[in-house]
Structure formats: structure tokens, C-alpha cells
Amino acid sequence: MIQRRLITAGLLATASLGAVTTPLLAQTSWPTRPVRLIVPYPAGGPVDQLARTIAPKLGEQLGQPIVIDNRAGASGTIGIDAAVKAEPDGYTFGFGAPGGITVLPHLRKLPYAVEGINYMSLVARVPQVIAVNQKLNVNTLAELIALARKEPGKIAYGSAGNATTPHLGAELLAQEANLKMLHVAYKGAAPAVTALLAGEVQVMTADLSGLLPFQSRGIKIIAVSGPQRVDVLPGVPTTVELGLPAVHVESNYGIIEPANVPPAISKKLREALVAVLDMPAIKAQIATQGALAMSSTPEEYRKLMQQESVKWAGVLKKGNITLE
Fold this sequence. Notes:
CATH class of the largest domain: Alpha Beta
Low-confidence stretches: 1-27
Radius of gyration: 24 Å
CATH architecture of the largest domain: 3-Layer(aba) Sandwich
Shape: globular
Number of domains: 2
Number of strands: 10
Mean pLDDT: 92
Structural class: alpha/beta
Helix content: 40-55%
Largest sheet: 8 strands, mixed
Number of helices: 11
């Protein structure tokens, strides 16, 4: 009888141990199938290009392909919502869209709670630049400021829509330099760039990746909105050099994840991502896109997004900016 009880207890202990270790074994063997990366912008755009640059090498590191899933719309919030609400099984992650994290929460109710977003790591920082149509008699930021002050309200700048990064970057410049310029909102970045090339608007502030292909092909980039010059345009000064240190605008893209992803999986993916971003060839490829490859800890990524949110809240309030 005693022996039978011991055997029964041993079987129960073994079953209990199996229940605990099976998920752990599944986590350490992850991934066993393709991993989905949701990009909250259309295929073919600068952010999609960035994701597709890292995806093949990231897949090699993990031993399974990374499948890009473009979920565009609503300024990136559709893709963010899909990523943060995905099944936390380690097979769906997302690209964080800065506008949907740092700007839109101040303007309307979102389908997700920004405070609950789980950050994994930065992937790249894309500086914003200030560009003018080549036919405008302007070669420097100082000349643009002087012209805008001389003719208040006559210099028009284009944006991808109200409260988008191009709009807010130009508004921040206007606030800091005490300028009055005319805002012309377009339905997306591409038509705004087309308008700049055609001379419908004279100025645009936008991510370097979106304007770099047109440098010397109808537009002239006259300043980098931040503290650091970029390698692809070494002769273009920064707003810090030009006496406007508060005009610091960049788009920060990184990997976000659903809540409750097993820590072992998050750790493995982040380590693989850091390894990819440290590859000289990947760094060089991202640099040609007008971006700077950069990993981070989850807390560094979260803190950066919180700082950006505070900054844009101030700009929105001072400029009385809405989505209308």
C-alpha cells in the first residue's frame, strides 16, 4: 500500500513538472514558424523599406522568416492597434509609429491605451530636415527666416495633413523663429512632396528619408532639425548650429509587442535585433535611406516616447492645432 502511494505521488509530481516545463521548452525553442511584423504604413514607403531592410537578417538570426504585414491607415494607429492586441504567443510584433504614440493621443480617443504599449527596442532614428523649392531665392535657413519675416503669411509650407510630423515640424520652427507661414495640408506625404517639387508650396519639413531622393532634383535641403549632421548630407548644418536648438525633430521607429509575451521570447528577439543593427552592412544600408540604425533597451525606448509626447503636447497647445 505504501509503495503504491509512493508510485502515485511520483506520477503526480512528474505530471505537475511536465505542466510547468512544457511552456518553458516551447519558449526556448521559439520560433518554430514564421514571425509576423506589422508595419503601420503602406508597402513601398520609407518605413516599410526600413522594416524590409532588417527582416531578412533578423530571420536568419532566429532561424525563421520574418513576414511583413502592412496595416496602413489612420496615421499608423490601425497597425499599432493590431500589434498591441495580437495574441501574445511570440509570433506577432509591430513597428511603432511615433505619431500614433506621441501626437494623436493628445487629439482624439484611440482604440488602444498608449500607457499599455510594450516597447522592445528602437530600430532607427530618422532626422527631419527643412527643404525649400529650388526656385525660391533661398540658400540658407537664415535667408528663409528673413524672407518669411519680411512677408508674413506669404511663404507656404506643405504637410501630410493636420498634426502630422511635417506639420508639427514646421509649426515648431515657426514658433521658435517667430514666423508666420501658411500651412497647406495634403492627403499624405507623397502629394505634399510633389507639391513642393512643383512649387505649389515653397517649404516643407519632413523626414530625411522622404526628401533625400529629391535633393538637387527640384528641392534644396537647407538644415537638419536636430543636433547632429547626417553623413549623406555632410555640408548641411543643423538647427543647433544655426541657433535654434529647440527645433529638434526626428521620427523614432522601433519594435513594440503585445502584452504578456513570454520574457524569454522577448529577450531572444531583442538580442537578435541588436545583433542585426550592429552589422556594418545593415547600418550602411539604413544610412542610405536617411536613417540612423539604433537599438535601445525597452525602458530607453519608452522614456524617449514619453519625452516626445510632452514636447508635442506643448506645440499642439501653443499652435492651437486640431485634426480639423
